[in-house]
User: Which sequence fits this backbone?
C-alpha cells in the first residue's frame, strides 16, 4: 500500500448521499467505457442515506438500495436483502461482477459452495451462475464497473452469448488467514481471491487514524467499509458505505476513524471493459429486466 495524490483538476457533486468526483472537462468521450481517462473518477456512497425499495423479480421478493445507477456511464452498485428463498433463478450479467455477502447465507448447488458472510462471489461478463438459495437475513452488495443488466438463463438467446472462457470464483473470508500488513503497525490483511487470478479482493483492518492507500485502479476498484468508519475527502462513512475509483492516478488514501476500520478492496481487471449495455437486443432486454426489478 502507498499514498496517492489528490486529483486537483476535478470537482465533486453529491446527491442522495452519493458524492461523485469528475474531471472538469468531462464530455461524452470521457464517459465511454473504453476511454483511458488520465483524471481520477471517484464515487462515494453513504449507504445510510440511500432509500430502500421493496420489489420482486420472477416471484422472488427482496428489498433493494440503488447505490450507483450506472446511468452516467459509470459504475453500478446495488444492495439486496432477499427474503428466504430456496431457488433464485439462474442468470447472468453483461459485465464483470463482485458480489459481497455481508450477512446471511447463499447456497450454490451447482459447482460453487455454501457461502456465509463475510463471503465473495465473482464472475466475468456473460458468466451465468445459479440457481442459488438465500437464507438467514441475507444482505449483499452487487458491484459492477458499469451497468450490467440481468438476463435469465431461460432466455435461449442469452445461452448463445455465454462467455465460455469466463471466470467464476467464490470464497469465505473465514477460510483465509490474516497476515501482518508490511510497514503498518497493528494492521493486517487477508486475501479473498488468489493474488494472481486477475481481479483482486483483499480485506484490510487497521486501528484509528491509519491511512489506507492503494495503487491506481486502471479498470476500477470498489472500496467497501465492513466495520468501523473511514474518512474520504472529508466525509465519514460507516459500513457498508463505499467508494468506487478508476483512473491512471492513485486515489486519495482512506483514513480510518476513531475506532479503526476494516475495508474490502475489490479490483477489476481488463474484463471490466467487456460486455455491458451496448444497445443490441439482448443488452436492451437485460437493461429492461434490471429496471423492472429495482
Assistant:
Amino acid at each position: 500500500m502507498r499514498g496517492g495524490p489528490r486529483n486537483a483538476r476535478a470537482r465533486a457533486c453529491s446527491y442522495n448521499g452519493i458524492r461523485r468526483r469528475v474531471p472538469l472537462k468531462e464530455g461524452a468521450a470521457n464517459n465511454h467505457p473504453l476511454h483511458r481517462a488520465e483524471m481520477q473518477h471517484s464515487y462515494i456512497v453513504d449507504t445510510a442515506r440511500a432509500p430502500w425499495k421493496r420489489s420482486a423479480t420472477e416471484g422472488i421478493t427482496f428489498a433493494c438500495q440503488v447505490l450507483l445507477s450506472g446511468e452516467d456511464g459509470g459504475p453500478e452498485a446495488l444492495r439486496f436483502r432477499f427474503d428466504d428463498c430456496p431457488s433464485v433463478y439462474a442468470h447472468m450479467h453483461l459485465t464483470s461482477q463482485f458480489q459481497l455477502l455481508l450477512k446471511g447465507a447463499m447456497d450454490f448447488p451447482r459447482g460453487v459452495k455454501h457461502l456465509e458472510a463475510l463471503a465473495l462471489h465473482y464472475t466475468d461478463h456473460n458468466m451465468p451462475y445459479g440457481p442459488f438459495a438465500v437464507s438467514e437475513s441475507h444482505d449483499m452488495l452487487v458491484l459492477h464497473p458499469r451497468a450490467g443488466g440481468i438476463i435469465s438463463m431461460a432466455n435461449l438467446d442469452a445461452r448463445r452469448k455465454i462467455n465460455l472462457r469466463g471466470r467464476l470464483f467464490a470464497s469465505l473470508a473465514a477460510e483465509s488467514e490474516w497476515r501482518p500488513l508490511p510497514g503498518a503497525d497493528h494492521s493486517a490483511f487477508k486475501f479473498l481471491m488468489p493474488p494472481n487470478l486477475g481481479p483482486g479482493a483483499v480485506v484490510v483492518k487497521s486501528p484509528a487514524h491509519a491511512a489506507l492507500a492503494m495503487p491506481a485502479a486502471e479498470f476500477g476498484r470498489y472500496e467497501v467499509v465492513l466495520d468501523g468508519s473511514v474518512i474520504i475527502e472529508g466525509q465519514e462513512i460507516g459500513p457498508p458505505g463505499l467508494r468506487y475509483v478508476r483512473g491512471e492516478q492513485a486515489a486519495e488514501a482512506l483514513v480510518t476513524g476513531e475506532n479503526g476500520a476494516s475495508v474490502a478492496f475489490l479490483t477489476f481487471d481488463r474484463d471490466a471493459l467487456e460486455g455491458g449495455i451496448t444497445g443490441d437486443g439482448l443488452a436492451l432486454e437485460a437493461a429492461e429486466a434490471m429496471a423492472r426489478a429495482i
